[in-house]
Amino acid sequence: MDPRVKAVAAPKVLEQSFLEARSKLLDIAAILDRITRGDAAELVHQDVKISRIIEALKILQGSSAHKAEQIQKLFSLPYDANWEIPTPRY
Amino acid sequence: MQYIDPHIHMISRVTDDYHRMAQCGCVAISEPAFWAGFDRGSAEGFRDYFHHLVEVEPKRAALFGIRHFSWLCINAKEAENVSLSRDVIAMIPEFLQRPNVLGIGEIGLNKNTKNEATIFQEHMDLAAKTDELILIHTPHLEDKYKGTRMIVDMLKNDTRVKPHRVCIDHVEEHTVKLALDNGFWCGMTLYPTTKCTPARAVDIIEMVGTEKIMANSAGDWGKSDPLAVPELILEMRRRGHPETAIQKVVFENPLEFFRQSARWQEPFALLNFSK
Asked: Is residue B105 a contact partner of residue B134, using CB atoms and an 8 Å limit?
């Protein structure tokens, strides 16, 4: 860890980022509204993309300090450790 | 502040971009071979592309005092075609000794298929045989985590691989430690929508530190910003991070990684400074 790049004090981050966070939350709300308003909105309820978005919003409500990483993993395909690794040609 | 953009596709950019990058302090760039936006019909198409990377772009960059370096490979997307890939890999040694070539890249995975993995390994076989640095593309979006795990599996499975001579690119919050904890260099790509924003990249730096990590624009034919690295510099300054830490990420780290290549040449600006 590089002590020169420690995180900014929390109150300052909140002060600097509040309007940006507010704007991005409104964007998400507006996207969900747009989906609800569109024709055939009932079809998206079976779409995994909607449930992923809802799950991501739940992560935001938690107390984890690694929310971005958690959301990245939520939107990731599973990894199988037993996949067939190619053989190097020495 | 002087900086290096370690990953940008200048073949897709206009000359004015070189001008603006130089004005912002860019002294060197490296351009990995990538997907042109369409699948090429033959290996000869790659010969022309490699010629462009080793002949045309270095001259265009030099007009603005920027050193241009390149990496050669067949990209992960076209690697799905194994026969074509083998023809291209067989051609690469013809270009490896050109003065601006840093190594093999950007090899990697796209949709994490068996064919892509086969060709990734065959690129590594070539890099091991010719003792080249390796630059690795990790997949986009939902494929990134799985693909990065598979790439690390292949790197660790090959005893010839020296982690300090490999850079795993396009890392994000969920993959950065896979690279660093296994001793590899890593790159964060500042690219709209599909990769990192400058703010998230600085968050990652605050979490993992400044060792073996760099930042790039990956500017190309998509919506992207060739001045993304200066945006990262501004974001670090805005948060009060010291100039020495910023310089390590945007200049000293890529310099240290690239200097391992036998064909690295110091940026013109450094040569002029020492006179």
From this structure: yes
What domains sit in chain B, N to C, each tagged with a CATH number?
A: 3-274 (3.20.20.140)
Determine the straight-line distance between the first and last CA of chain A, rounded to whole angstroms.
Answer: 37
The answer to whether residue B273 scores a pLDDT higher than 80 is no
Model confidence at B274: pLDDT above 80: no
B106 preceded by a cis bond (ω within 30 of 0): yes
Going edge to edge, which strands form the sheet with B185-189? Answer: B3-5, B26-32, B67-72, B101-108, B133-137, B166-168, B185-189, B213-216
pLDDT tens digits, one per residue of B53-77: 999 999 999 999 999 999 999 999 9
Best B85, B151, B158 residue to mutate vs chain A (most A CBs within 10 Å): B158
Q: Does B153 touch chain A (CB under 8 A)?
A: yes
* Chain A residues with beta carbon closer than 8 angstroms to that of B211: 2
Tens digits of per-residue pLDDT, B81-105?
A: 999 999 999 999 999 999 999 999 9
Q: Which residue among A66, A68, A86 places its CB closest to the CB of B154? A: A86
